[in-house]
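Suppose a classmate hands you a notebook page containing two proteins, each written out with its sequence and a corresponding row of structure tokens. How would you begin to make sense of it? This section walks through that situation. The first entry is reproduced here exactly as it would appear on such a page.
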Amino acid sequence: MSYVRLGDRRRGEALDGFLRVTQHLVGFVVVILIDKRQKLFAGDDAPDEFQHWKSKAFERLLTTTHLLSILLSGLTRERQDILWTSDEDDIAPNDARMWDVCDVVGRVSAHYLDHDLGHFRFATTKSDDGSRELEDLVAIPDLAAGCLAEVSASYRHLGATLSPNLVLPVPAALPPKAARLLRWITESSGGLRHIVVSVDPNEPASKFVVRRLAFTTN
């Protein structure tokens, strides 16, 4: 199950049931929408031991680990164990890169956390034991992020900017799969909560604007 594959008939038919099951989970789905024009980190300034990384991939790694560290600093307690699971993208395409990721997480999180974590483990969907549990868990943020990226792009096409100070109707041209998922994101019942944040460019270029966005069916 993934956003880009929802055109498949069987996945489309299974989507509503899958989304109902997610509402029995207790936790947060945090989606951070970063404007492509906004560069938070320079990937070409990688330390010598990470020069084998491509600049764009290392930039994504830095962005991801800093955002992860912010979440860990606010949502974890002393000696809590952490399991970070990712799909097999350009950050973690093989075992060697996974060790690099753990190294960077350790360095970056040390600047954010004021307490010690327990065991930190990093895995990709390749580590799935055949039960598809990791695949299913990773699919949840994938669906949310894919939907909200499409929603944001639809508003931009109309010349509108998402803002907590504006109430905007759902774009009429929104693809059906995004509309189905947007209803799930606005659902308030159950134990799963959605948090959406946007990061947009500002002036001067070194500045940026961070907004908390809310979506509702009302």
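The notebook's second entry, a different protein, reads as follows.
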Amino acid sequence: MDKTMKRMLRSLLAAGALCALSAAHAAHTKPNPTWASPTNHWFLSAGGGLEYPHFNANTRINNGSGFAPPADQDIYSYDNNHHPFVTFAGGYRYRWNQTWFPALMLGLTYQYLLSNDVGGKITQFSDPTFTNYNFRLDVSASILLAAAKLNLFQYRQFLPYVSAGLGGAYVRTGSYGETALPNVTPRTSAGFAENTKNQFAYTLGAGLDYFITPTLIISAGYQYLNLGHLYSGNGTSQWSGQSLNLGSYYSNEVLMNLTYLLP
């Protein structure tokens, strides 16, 4: 786990502790009538954030050399970087005049993972002394989910929540490329082709809503996203008939949203 993820988890734990303290106080406090009006609303929201994807630690590809194993395979190791995404949602918000479980949002969420370079290093012949190339593979996704967000309790304008979504994703992998490291002679690229596929997808999340006005909510939270198993198209030359396997694509996401409750 890198330093950024550790800082993010510490922040989430601190936010959770604050929510727990607020809950203890809210249990003995009547809801503030300004922010607890039992009115249902249609809503629209938009936002974005950063995702921290995770892939197979190592992928092995037959290099066509004919050498005895394991020298007949090259190892592709992935870097785990962060990438941006945007999200839009719409639906209906049910509201009850109570402290605990005061609101439930049901609707559709669209999330677009902007094109990002997924990649790392290539170790030829499974020999660490032959780590000779960097590689990159472009990945993007359009995700449509049936989603629900449940507020756990309310203290003044603050409403912690849990969320879940279930649906599908259209995922594209393509624009594969290789670059030789210094003092290494460039080889013929494996040339893995573009691949598109429809995938089952789901999310799980938690965070905090804050009422800026009685009809405008800003939210910050964490979300786990799973897009299932991904791989590239087939390669060229001795890599024909083979694809670059990314394994199960899942990511940790930090996000912010702005929600407007329609009159």
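A careful reader of the second entry would note: The first helix runs from residue 3 to 26.
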